[in-house]
Design a protein that fits this description.
Layout lengths: L1 E7 L18 E6 H5 E2 L2 E2 L2 H15 L7 E7 L3 H4 L8 E6 L5 H8 L3 H4 L5 E5 L6 H9 L3 E6 L6 H6 L2 E6 L3 H20 L1
Parallel strand pairs: 2-5, 2-7, 5-6, 7-8, 8-9
Antiparallel strand pairs: 1-9, 3-4
């Protein structure tokens, strides 16, 4: 799994790609875990979730010691994915198994005005339109909004409200191993020539 890009949404093109996370400010993270970890109908494993969290936490977005992290999941995936996330400030919101269950549980914990004076940035790790009102309220109270998404689609309304967008695309271990093998082969051939 690799962090691919962080770009200002007003100028999304190859020339504006930044590969470092924005300067560290106190942040509220709203992670719709199932939105991030389900691709093409395939559920991710605990190991996949741990790799995604490591990339999110350490490379793509960054999680500081004063940040709040809210993770929304359905009751069916909690047991499987929870061991992948570590940290004292990770708070779980468990929703029902129906449509938008995890989203609604996550939203119930987040009210932008309560964070406005203490936190300067809201990171929404989801592409679902249900989070657009939260992003709008966060901007209204002066918070920067960062959107994190993977291969799943992104609501145009939500994307328009984000000042920064970051893409984290899951890569299966077999694909990662093949890519590393190909890089080593090219490197060996280049150094032998």
């Amino acid at each position: 799994m690799r962090h691919l890009d962080t770009v200002p949404t007003s100028t999304i093109d190859d020339a504006d790609v930044r590969t470092t996370a924005p300067r560290r400010v106190r942040t509220v993270h709203a992670i719709d875990l199932e939105n991030q970890l389900v691709t093409r109908g395939r559920r991710m494993t605990t190991a996949d979730a741990a790799r995604w969290w490591a990339v999110y936490r350490d490379e793509a977005v960054g999680v500081g010691p004063d940040d709040l992290v809210f993770v929304g999941v359905s009751v069916h995936t909690t047991r499987e994915l929870r061991p992948a996330f570590e940290g004292d400030r990770v708070m779980w919101r468990i929703g029902h198994a129906g449509p938008d269950g995890a989203d609604l549980a996550l939203l119930s914990a987040l009210y932008a005005p309560q964070f406005a004076g203490k936190y300067r940035r809201l990171v929404i790790a989801s592409g679902d339109h249900i989070f657009a009102p939260l992003a709008r309220h966060a901007r209204e109270v002066g918070m920067k909004v960062q959107l994190v998404h993977g291969r799943n689609g992104v609501s145009s309304e939500l994307a328009a409200l984000a000042s920064t967008r970051t893409t984290i695309r899951p890569v299966a271990r077999s694909q990662e191993a093949r890519a590393l093998s190909a890089i080593r082969l090219v490197h060996t051939a280049a150094t032998a020539a």
